[in-house]
Design a protein that fits this description.
It is a single chain. By secondary structure, the chain is mostly helical. The chain contains six helices and no strands. The chain folds into two domains: 30 residues, no CATH class; 185 residues, Four Helix Bundle (Hemerythrin (Met), subunit A), CATH 1.20.120. The protein is 70% helix and 0% strand. The longest helix is centred in the first third of the chain and has 32 residues. It is elongated and about 60 Å long.
Length: 229
């Protein structure tokens, strides 16, 4: 046996394990979950994407907050708006939902590390995830009640600059939170095959980051409306 032949055989064993050929992406444990094909992009790509999206959202709401402060200081027609008390309850609800989604994310971590499929995950994960979704719905219902209470008191979008900003800020946040609820529903109740372009662990992580952001953003906006009125 020549040195060239021996070297070729060693390379064949290292790459493909002998006559079995190179291991394919479908046969080796991948990151797609369940030992299937790896996702199209690694998790860090999706996390970077959501961070960029959140940065754009933050800039939008900071512009709203700045306009709120400037508009209040530039005119004498600003009438302080009495905030509906249910907003305090809403604030507590969204804070609790941030805790429940984090609990769900941590319950998923050992399952993702073990590369188990959807059927192998503990039922507790779906329970905590479902609770987070329910709390998000409760938050939106609370916002609708707050708007109804203001309307019943004769306070509408065009009543005063303060009420205009209240409706604008809370509606903008509510729309983004509604998008978050859609994401929570998809992540919690759809099936996740091994060949999915995004694996379930990545979807959970990205959704949790988005939801935490919405919770922190609402606390900031609530304090702005409360203290800055």
């Amino acid at each position: 046996m020549t040195a060239r032949t021996a070297t070729g055989e060693v390379e064949l064993i290292e790459v493909g394990g002998g006559d079995r050929g190179p291991a394919s992406a479908e046969s080796r444990p991948g990151r797609g979950g369940d030992g299937g094909a790896a996702p199209l992009f690694p998790q860090r790509i999706y996390i970077s994407g959501i961070v960029l999206a959140l940065a754009a959202m933050l800039m939008f709401f900071m512009a709203l907050a700045s306009a709120y402060v400037v508009r209040k200081g530039l005119s004498g027609d600003w009438i302080p708006l009495g905030l509906p008390r249910i907003l305090w309850l809403n604030t507590a609800v969204i804070i609790v939902s941030s805790l429940t989604i984090e609990r769900a994310r941590r319950l998923l971590a050992p399952q993702a590390a073990g590369l188990r499929g959807f059927r192998g995950w503990p039922r507790r994960w779906r329970g905590w995830w479902g609770l987070t979704t329910a709390l998000g719905v409760a938050f939106l219902v609370g916002q609708l009640i707050a708007w109804q209470q203001l309307a019943a008191a004769g306070i509408y979008l065009a009543t005063n600059p303060s009420s205009s900003f209240f409706y604008l800020i809370t509606t903008a946040h509510g729309i983004h939170l509604l998008g978050g609820l859609v994401a929570l529903s998809v992540v919690g109740f759809r099936s996740w095959p091994a060949e999915a372009r995004v694996n379930h662990s990545t979807a959970v992580t990205v959704s949790a980051i988005y939801w935490h952001f919405l919770g922190a953003l609402w606390v900031f906006l609530f304090l702005l409306l409360l203290v800055g009125r």
